[in-house]
């Protein structure tokens, strides 16, 4: 009986013994925090709880809360020590990397997260929120978050400093186009601004037929040549000049010059193609219009709607000039439009009856022209064209044509009654205002120089009208909102209604196509006025 009773009591005693040992073990492993008295696990060897460790131990000690970062206001680049200047946008990964490299002591902890805290773009302050992990005590890892403020110090990088001294450039690109008007050059200017192709330029100077771009390195000039080859038809020639030579080391210093010439044919020019070339271009007519300028020259036969592209290499094998340009256009009144039923894209071929505007009320002379403008011309419209029958051309190619197949008039474009320049709700940037180093300090006091200015303004106005008419051209450049002109136009429209001389069918640019200049704000201080410079005669 005793043995049986003992066997029945043994499990209960064993359970009580285990609970007693566990209770004793818990009592031995628990200690109080020396700071706040909170019970903590004593087996870790710590005498302070985790919260008190975070409050009393600073793992970020030695990491400064303020730092400086250098910024060149001329080229808008940041300094990455020891001497590398890097282009970085606000709140970009590149700028964050530059800021983190400026922090001393950051290598002693583990960086978990880093992010920008918004600051006003012109405050010259950059704030960053950092989260780091580090060992506070033995076998104790804590995480802390803190902020660092950077003061942006405006200075001048060595490249910009050299640009203000003479004889510092190592390569130059001289762009020329020998034509009486500069509309192709104006288009090229907008392409350069859109693609920021002049970013490496240390200075720009104006020349008679174009611009000169100066660079501190040869590869920057080569990069510009590649860009020009992709957007306009050109030929380039390289030359070099020996500046210095070290006979001991055998090293030499050269200056490189790239002469770039743009094909001297612009849009809407009247061209007579050489007979052999016309056959090579799909047997197109010799008497054509230049319809488009890209990295090739596109010609259009206005009597058949046939088009052909001429590559620069093929042009420079046997170059030729345009027969007439847009300064020689004559105004005509449309009397009748008879479509032929032939169309290609947006163009419709039509037989158009016209009379010269200057002949109205004087005689009843009318002319007949087959034109590609059948889609937009109607009776009563005004159209500009080349008056072949009343012109004399000094051209061997023109003299070689069969006069029976030469039309009396070649129509080029429809004319509209447009808004004045002040009332346009859009505008373009100009390179003279975008690049501070451009040489535009000229005296326009003489009569000849005033005429040059007037001619440049006229070419610019024609270029703006082309942009309004050609949607495809507008897609390749940046157009910006002109808020002041738009507000003035609304006030004038509310007071007087639509202007009497404004054509309601005149092409307009949709506001959705316009950009806002505020979206392209940089670190430049707006309170600092840029010097007013004369626009280059492009």
Automatic annotation (TrEMBL):
<feature type="compositionally biased region" description="Polar residues">
    <location>
        <begin position="529"/>
        <end position="538"/>
    </location>
</feature>
<dbReference type="InterPro" id="IPR007064">
    <property type="entry name" value="Nmd3_N"/>
</dbReference>
<dbReference type="GO" id="GO:0000055">
    <property type="term" value="P:ribosomal large subunit export from nucleus"/>
</dbReference>
<dbReference type="InterPro" id="IPR048898">
    <property type="entry name" value="OB_NMD3"/>
</dbReference>
<dbReference type="GO" id="GO:0005634">
    <property type="term" value="C:nucleus"/>
</dbReference>
<keyword id="KW-0813">Transport</keyword>
<keyword id="KW-0963">Cytoplasm</keyword>
<dbReference type="InterPro" id="IPR048899">
    <property type="entry name" value="NMD_SH3"/>
</dbReference>
<keyword id="KW-0539">Nucleus</keyword>
<protein>
    <recommendedName>
        <fullName>60S ribosomal export protein NMD3</fullName>
    </recommendedName>
</protein>
<feature type="region of interest" description="Disordered">
    <location>
        <begin position="516"/>
        <end position="538"/>
    </location>
</feature>
<dbReference type="GO" id="GO:0070180">
    <property type="term" value="F:large ribosomal subunit rRNA binding"/>
</dbReference>
<keyword id="KW-0653">Protein transport</keyword>
<dbReference type="InterPro" id="IPR039768">
    <property type="entry name" value="Nmd3"/>
</dbReference>
<comment type="similarity">
    <text>Belongs to the NMD3 family.</text>
</comment>
<feature type="domain" description="60S ribosomal export protein NMD3 SH3">
    <location>
        <begin position="265"/>
        <end position="313"/>
    </location>
</feature>
<feature type="domain" description="Nmd3 N-terminal">
    <location>
        <begin position="33"/>
        <end position="262"/>
    </location>
</feature>
<feature type="region of interest" description="Disordered">
    <location>
        <begin position="1"/>
        <end position="21"/>
    </location>
</feature>
<dbReference type="Pfam" id="PF21192">
    <property type="entry name" value="OB_NMD3"/>
</dbReference>
<feature type="compositionally biased region" description="Acidic residues">
    <location>
        <begin position="516"/>
        <end position="528"/>
    </location>
</feature>
<feature type="domain" description="60S ribosomal export protein NMD3 OB-fold">
    <location>
        <begin position="329"/>
        <end position="414"/>
    </location>
</feature>
<dbReference type="GO" id="GO:0030674">
    <property type="term" value="F:protein-macromolecule adaptor activity"/>
</dbReference>
<comment type="function">
    <text>Acts as an adapter for the XPO1/CRM1-mediated export of the 60S ribosomal subunit.</text>
</comment>
<dbReference type="GO" id="GO:0015031">
    <property type="term" value="P:protein transport"/>
</dbReference>
<keyword id="KW-0175">Coiled coil</keyword>
<dbReference type="Pfam" id="PF04981">
    <property type="entry name" value="NMD3"/>
</dbReference>
<dbReference type="GO" id="GO:0043023">
    <property type="term" value="F:ribosomal large subunit binding"/>
</dbReference>
<dbReference type="Pfam" id="PF21193">
    <property type="entry name" value="NMD_SH3"/>
</dbReference>
<dbReference type="GO" id="GO:0005829">
    <property type="term" value="C:cytosol"/>
</dbReference>
<feature type="coiled-coil region">
    <location>
        <begin position="446"/>
        <end position="473"/>
    </location>
</feature>
């Amino acid at each position: 009986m005793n043995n049986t009773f003992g066997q029945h009591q043994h499990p209960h005693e064993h359970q009580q013994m285990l609970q007693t040992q566990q209770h004793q073990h818990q009592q031995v492993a628990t200690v109080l925090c020396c700071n706040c008295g909170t019970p903590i696990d004593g087996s870790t060897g710590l005498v302070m709880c985790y919260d008190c460790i975070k409050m009393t131990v600073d793992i970020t000690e030695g990491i400064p809360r303020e730092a400086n970062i250098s910024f060149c206001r001329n080229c808008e680049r940041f300094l990455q020590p020891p001497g590398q200047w890097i282009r970085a946008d606000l709140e970009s990964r590149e700028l964050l990397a530059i800021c983190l490299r400026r922090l001393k002591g950051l290598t002693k902890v583990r960086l978990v997260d880093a992010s920008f805290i918004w600051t006003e773009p012109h405050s010259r302050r950059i704030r960053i929120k950092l989260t780091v992990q580090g060992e506070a005590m033995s076998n104790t890892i804590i995480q802390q978050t803190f902020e660092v403020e950077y003061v942006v110090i405006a200075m001048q990088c060595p490249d910009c400093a050299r640009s203000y001294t003479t004889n510092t450039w190592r390569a130059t690109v001289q762009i020329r186009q020998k034509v009486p008007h500069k509309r192709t050059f104006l288009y090229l200017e907008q392409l350069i601004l859109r693609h920021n192709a002049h970013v490496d330029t240390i200075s720009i100077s104006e020349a008679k037929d174009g611009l000169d771009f100066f660079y501190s390195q040869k590869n920057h000039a080569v990069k510009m040549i590649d860009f020009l080859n992709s957007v306009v038809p050109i030929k380039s020639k390289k030359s070099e000049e020996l500046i210095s030579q070290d006979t001991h080391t055998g090293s030499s210093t050269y200056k490189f010059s790239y002469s770039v010439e743009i094909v001297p044919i612009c849009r809407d020019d009247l061209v007579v193609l050489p007979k052999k070339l016309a056959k090579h271009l799909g047997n197109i007519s010799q008497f054509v219009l230049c319809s488009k300028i890209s990295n090739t020259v596109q010609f259009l036969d206005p009597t058949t709607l046939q088009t052909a592209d001429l590559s620069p290499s093929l042009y420079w094998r046997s170059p030729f000039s345009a027969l007439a340009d847009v300064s020689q256009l004559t105004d005509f009144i449309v009397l009748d439009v008879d479509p032929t039923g032939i169309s290609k894209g947006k163009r419709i071929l039509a037989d158009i009856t016209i009379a010269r505007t200057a002949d109205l009320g004087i005689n009843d002379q009318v002319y007949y022209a087959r034109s590609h403008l059948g889609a937009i011309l109607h009776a009563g419209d005004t159209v500009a064209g080349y008056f072949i029958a009343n012109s004399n051309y000094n051209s061997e190619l023109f003299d070689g044509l069969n006069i029976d197949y030469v039309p009396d008039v070649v129509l080029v474009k429809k004319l509209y009654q447009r808004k004045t320049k002040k009332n346009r709700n859009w505008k373009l940037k100009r390179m003279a205002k975008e690049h501070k180093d451009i040489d535009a300090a000229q005296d326009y006091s003489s009569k000849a120089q005033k005429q040059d200015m007037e001619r440049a303004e006229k070419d610019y106005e024609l270029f703006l009208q082309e942009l309004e008419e050609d949607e495809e051209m507008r897609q390749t450049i940046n157009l910006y909102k002109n808020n002041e002109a738009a507000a003035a136009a609304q006030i004038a429209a509310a007071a007087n209604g639509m202007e009497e001389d404004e054509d309601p069918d005149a092409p307009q640019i949709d506001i959705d196509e316009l950009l806002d200049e505020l979206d392209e704000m940089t670190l430049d201080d707006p309170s600092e006025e840029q010097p007013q410079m004369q626009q280059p005669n492009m």
